[in-house]
Amino acid sequence: MNDRKYILTGLVIFFAIVTFPFWYNLGKAAPGPDIKLTEKAKAAKTCVMPTSYMRAEHMQLLDLWRHNVVRNAERVFVNTEGKEFNMSLSNTCLDCHSNKADFCDKCHNYSSVRPYCWDCHIENPKEAK
Question: Which secondary structure element, helix H or strand E, spans residue 76, and what is its range?
């Protein structure tokens, strides 16, 4: 029991070393990817929904579209401003955001997400024709 102070000191040092990366990076976040918009997307100035919504909720919107098109045979989406859009990833979204590598892949790689959209949809429907 005479080694109690050495054991406690060793445990404190061990705990400090093991948890140092967590404490050092506390509150720091890696900067997000630099997204490049196509000229058509810049010129359009409007998307299906506002940019903040699309950044956070685009997958839920695409799931809703898929459900409405496949199950309910609905093809038209009306956004909050009353504007109508065709519910199509390939023809609506990729019409403005045609460069998948610079637009979709950068964010998905940053977030370590592998979406299953491309299991059915081709990356650039305009080039396939």
Answer: strand 76-78
The answer to whether 122 and 90 have CB atoms below 8 angstroms apart is yes
* C-beta atoms surrounding 103 within 10 Å: 20
d(CA 29, CA 84): 37
Where do the structural domains in the chain lie, given as residue ranges? 39-128
- Give the residue from 115, 127, 99 showing the smallest Cα distance to 37: 99
Task: Summarize pLDDT for 24-60 with one digit per residue, the tens.
Answer: 988 887 788 888 777 877 777 778 998 889 888 999 9
DSSP letter, residue 119: G
- Amino acid in position 65: W
DSSP helix/strand/coil, 68: helix
Amino acid in the structure at residue 69: V
Q: Are 121 and 90 in contact (CB under 8 A)?
A: yes
CB count within 10 Å of CB 20 equals: 10
